[in-house]
Each structure stands twice: as structure tokens, then as C-alpha cells.
Specification:
The protein has 2 domains: about 20-30 and about 50-165, Glutaredoxin; about 175-290, Glutathione S-transferase Yfyf (Class Pi), Chain A, domain 2, CATH 1.20.1050.10. Strands 4-3-5-6 form a 4-stranded mixed sheet. The protein contains 9 helices and 6 strands; from the N terminus they run E-E-E-H-E-H-E-E-H-H-H-H-H-H-H. Helix 1 crosses helix 7 (about 240-255) and helix 4 (about 175-190) runs antiparallel to helix 6 (about 205-225). By secondary structure, the protein is of the alpha/beta class. The chain has helices at about 65-75, 115-125, 150-160, 175-190, 195-200, 205-225, 240-255, 270-280, 290-300, and strands at about 20-25, 50, 55-60, 85, 135-140, 145.
């Protein structure tokens, strides 16, 4: 099994992903996306582009993983189920790959593979980086197209708009875009990744620093949500999706397993009510599997939890209690 906490070092997430994009046209449909300069001899395109064709791709995303969980939620909120199929690996994996042990015969029923690394190796033999989820796979070739999790959900909103359901929410409202991106950056750095920086810290100093930044940000969020229903006001946005996937794992995993234990989520009135509000919103709670979440963290991180014992708690019934944030 891999080692997640390296003695004497702080945790640094490798954010290098396969950069290919799936676009609706020759250029990005997001008017603020400057990834693609106008083509000329002086500014050639260096990011491969694939067409947004319904039925062509399969989203491989484990319910257990918070980064993959985002893509499952956004796909459902936007009504893209018929346009992009979904394959769900099981909650545990080894150093080699995520596996499809939940499917009959241990193979993904569409891709026909046992391990996700088969799709990565089809793209690049001996792919040298992590075999991560979410990943979008081109069904015909069996190759991974991209595993860039923030870009995947962003492009679901902009590039797949023609295939969204008519009443799909606008998860990237233009009038709050600048503030929203700043909020998302802080949430990602200090909360989403902050819990990992606590859990995978290899020194007391690294842990103390991550712990302080995490709880400073959690207190900031508690205050921010005191006078608004969602992070950006009265509208649900992708910022809420990104925060939810950490909050829903907080008491079950991060509080104990990752030593983020100043207090529990249920002890923060605004954040706990906000998390329940999202959980009870169609598209959120039904994608959560607490058993898979706990099995993933407590079994896979063998250097942190060497016994492999998965805790029975906490009580999940509170997620369905009234939240009072109408």
C-alpha cells in the first residue's frame, strides 16, 4: 500500500492532470475562459480538444472520493445523465488502481475493464502519475480524455449546455463570478485540501499550520453563512458543491482520521444547517454513501490507520433533520 504521510514533510497535492478539454465548439463556450488564444502561427493551440458528443464518454467517479463526488453531483444537477454515462469504482483501491469491484464480474459494464489504470495505459502506456478519479473516458477507444477534476465540472456547465435539462441551474452566474472564484480558491486551499494537509502532515509543524488555516477558514464560512442561504447568496452555485463534498465527510472521517478535531461539524450551527440543506436538496444526498466514504479512508490509508478498522459511527440520521434555511 502507498504511504500518504511522509515523515518531516507537509502534504502537497499534485495538481498536474491530463489537460485535454471536451468543448462544444472550436473554442471554449465560457466567455471568461482564456485557455485558448486565437489561433495563429505565433500562438498555436497546445491543449487537445475533443467534441462534446452525447453518448461518447463515460465519467468514472467513485462515490467515496470527494473530488470525484463533485462531478457526480454536477452531472446530476445539470441533467446530463443521458449525455454522459457514469461508472462507479468501489471505495477501496491499492497502489495500482481503482477497481470496479462493485460491478458484476468485477468489470465496468461499458468499458469492460477491471482497473481504471487500463484506460490510463490506453492513453499513455505506463502512465507515470496517479490513477485518479474522476476521469472521463472515450468509450470507443477506451482512453482517458481528462482527469482534471475542476475543469471537468466547469465544462459540464459551459460546454454541455445544449444537452442539459431545460431547468438546469446556472452554477456559474456571471454577476458573482469574480467573488465566487475567490471564495472557491480559499475553500479549496484551506478546507477541501486543508483537511488532507492535516491528515497527511509528516511533522507537528506542518500539522499545526494546516490545522490553524483550516479552522480559520471554517470560522469564516460559519460567519459568511449566517446571513445567506448559500455561499453566493440565494443561488446554488458550484462553490456550494465543492464545499459540500468536504462537509459531508467531516464528522465521519476528517474529524478523527485526519485529526481535524477542534470540534465537529454538528457543533457549528450555520455550517451544519447549511450542510443539511444541501444534503436534502435533490442531487446531493442521494449521491452520498457513508459506508463507502468510511471504508475508503480507513482502509486505504493504512499508514494512518494500520488496523484497517472502520468506525461504526457517527449517527447519520441528523442529516435529515429540519435545517431552517428556506
Amino acid at each position: 500500500m502507498p504511504t500518504y504521510a511522509e515523515p518531516g514533510r507537509s502534504f502537497e497535492r499534485d495538481m498536474t492532470y491530463i489537460a485535454d478539454r471536451i468543448l462544444a465548439g472550436a473554442e471554449s463556450a465560457d466567455p471568461l475562459d482564456d485557455s485558448f488564444p486565437s489561433e495563429s502561427k505565433d500562438s498555436p493551440r497546445d491543449v487537445p480538444v475533443w467534441p462534446a458528443e452525447p453518448g461518447r464518454y463515460r465519467l468514472v467517479a467513485a462515490r467515496a472520493c470527494p473530488w470525484a463526488h463533485r462531478s457526480i453531483i454536477v452531472r446530476g444537477l445539470l441533467g446530463l445523465e443521458d449525455a454522459i454515462s457514469w461508472g462507479a469504482p468501489g471505495p477501496t483501491h491499492d497502489a495500482r488502481s481503482w477497481t470496479f469491484d462493485l460491478d458484476e464480474g468485477g468489470r465496468d459494464p461499458v468499458l469492460g475493464i477491471e482497473r481504471l489504470r487500463e484506460a490510463y495505459f490506453a492513453r499513455e502506456p505506463g502512465y507515470p502519475r496517479g490513477i485518479t478519479v474522476p476521469a472521463i473516458v472515450d468509450v470507443a477507444s477506451g482512453m482517458v480524455v481528462t482527469n482534471d477534476f475542476p475543469q471537468i465540472t466547469h465544462d459540464f456547465s459551459f460546454e454541455w449546455r445544449e444537452h442539459q435539462r431545460p431547468d438546469a441551474p446556472d452554477l456559474w452566474p456571471a454577476d458573482v463570478r469574480e467573488e465566487m472564484e475567490a471564495v472557491m480558491e480559499r475553500v479549496f486551499t484551506d478546507v477541501n485540501d486543508g483537511v488532507y494537509q492535516c491528515g497527511f502532515a509528516g511533522s507537528q509543524e506542518a500539522y499545526d499550520d494546516a490545522y490553524t488555516r483550516l479552522w480559520t477558514a471554517m470560522d469564516w464560512l460559519e460567519e459568511r453563512l449566517a446571513d445567506r442561504r448559500y455561499l453566493m447568496g440565494d443561488r446554488l452555485t458550484e462553490a456550494d458543491v465543492g464545499l459540500f463534498t468536504t462537509l459531508v465527510r467531516f464528522d465521519a472521517v476528517y474529524h478523527g482520521h485526519f485529526k481535524c478535531n477542534r470540534n465537529k461539524l454538528v457543533e457549528m450551527p450555520q455550517l451544519w444547517a447549511y450542510a443539511r440543506d444541501l444534503f436534502q436538496t435533490p442531487g446531493f444526498g442521494e449521491t452520498v454513501d457513508f459506508d463507502q466514504i468510511k471504508r475508503h479512508y480507513y482502509v486505504v490509508h493504512a499508514d494512518i490507520n494500520p488496523t484497517g478498522i472502520v468506525p461504526m459511527g457517527p449517527d447519520e440520521s441528523g442529516w435529515l433533520a429540519p435545517h431552517g434555511r428556506g
